[in-house]
Amino acid sequence: MAIDIVALGKGQRSPECVGKLLDVWEASVRATHHFLTEKDIVRLAPQAEEALRHIETLWVLQDGQSPVGFMGVQERKIEMLFLHPAYIRKGLVRMLVERALRELQVEYVDVNEQNSGAAKFYGRMGFETFNRNEYDNEGNHFPILEMRKR
């Protein structure tokens, strides 16, 4: 498996590209965010699309010509990181986070508390919870753990 990390500037994020990344987002969310309902996923998709278009730094994991994951970083914070379920547990998320720590000096990440696998992963990567919010940024009752690099 030869996976490449491709940095996409805002001018390189065509509607077709963003559409493919949204497919990855949806597959990832369905596999890892079991607390979300179908209605939640449909409601969140336009927000994910908007974020993909405008996030400062967007790195895409490519398997050949196909995107299989992505990470968005804004102001030293991982704002989004999603991986197609077929590529989970292959070290790809670790590779992205390690590179972001090294090259972008990432310090922060927010994690849905109900996504315990992600919280544990970031803990192993040296992040610790410094705040818990009962509601997400949209006011939904999806508790958020704010984590900071130790």
From TrEMBL:
Alphabetically ordered keywords of this record: Acyltransferase, Transferase
Domain N-acetyltransferase, chain residue ranges per copy: 22-150
Transmembrane regions listed in the UniProt entry: none
Keyword Zinc: no
Alphabetized Pfam families for the sequence: Acetyltransf_10
Keyword Translocase carried by entry: no
InterPro entries, sorted: Acyl_CoA_acyltransferase, GNAT_dom
GO molecular function, one term: acyltransferase activity, transferring groups other than amino-acyl groups
Top-rank taxon: Bacteria
Listed SUPFAM superfamilies: Acyl-CoA N-acyltransferases (Nat)
Protein name as annotated: GNAT family N-acetyltransferase
